[in-house]
Amino acid sequence: MEEIQQRRFWLIELIAYWEGRLTTTHLREFFGISRQQASADIGRYRETHPGNLPDYQHSDRAYLPSPEFERHYISADVAEYLNWMAGLSARSLPTRPSCQLPNLVLRHPARNVTPQLTRPLVRAIREQRRVEVDYGSIANPDREGRIIAPHTFVNTGLRWHLRAWCEKNQQYRDFVLSRFHGEPEVLDKSPRSAKGDTAWNTEITLILQPDLRLSAEQKAVLEHDYSMEGGQLRLQTRAALASYLLKEMQVNTKMLDGRPEAQQLVLVNYEDVKGWLF
């Protein structure tokens, strides 16, 4: 199969599998093709893999995946879909072998996330709806039902979570995707959206610098490594994501590591931003 056709079949599966509905608009917007071309691509996919996408459902204005849907071009890792949705995956065709260089990408273990979980959540975000979910956390490992109003999927580097209003706690919180159980139930409209999430909409600046216990030569290495200006690195972020960013940068704000070579960077303006950290 030619690369262009395979790429289109990949997107057809990705959308149908994780969102639960497919329209020509997905292909048209992503590949910049006509409605006729998109319809032809979907038709070829249905001919190649009969049974995956039954006839067009006029009531839903989309093709819906069958319960017996089989994956041929995508993995079972939800990160593949979420990375595509966030624009983190390549939008072009694979590089020709003659142009490639040896490379290796460190891959985190796949989390236990199913299409039965993502489909209602995607719908809830798009339609600003409340969702009843079954969620187990470290604080409450026995799981408990709760109602949330999600507004954004967030990649924290190691895993994906969902930013949502929690009716039980009466505040916006982060929910790890792989800690949901079963199939969420989409409810009515919610008055809660991203606009009301103060921590999400507040921009703060984290100021980092080399650990003062390092030698001048070691500090110079870090200053060059991070293109620091005046010996400092200024990172602007949403307040809700500040702790995740510091964790990714391996900056410990609770206590200094005993070895400055391990700590490397310290947060200079801790007092200014500590109210947003957890």
Topology:
Elements: H1 3-19, H2 24-31, H3 35-48, H4 78-85, H5 115-127, E1 129-135, E2 144-155, E3 160-166, E4 171-176, E5 180-189, H6 198-201, E6 203-210, H7 216-225, E7 233-238, H8 242-248, H9 260-263, E8 265-267, H10 270-273
Antiparallel strand pairs: 1-2, 1-5, 2-3, 3-4, 6-7, 6-8
Helix pairs in contact: 2-3
Task: Please tell me about this protein's structure.
The model is unreliable at 90-99 (pLDDT under 50). 23% of the residues are buried. The strands form 2 sheets. This protein has a 5-stranded antiparallel beta sheet. By secondary structure, it is an alpha+beta fold. The chain has helices at 3-19, 24-31, 35-48, 78-85, 115-127, 198-201, 216-225, 242-248, 260-263, 270-273, and strands at 129-135, 144-155, 160-166, 171-176, 180-189, 203-210, 233-238, 265-267. A hairpin with a 4-residue loop joins strand 2 and strand 3 (160-166). The radius of gyration is 23 Å and the shape is globular.
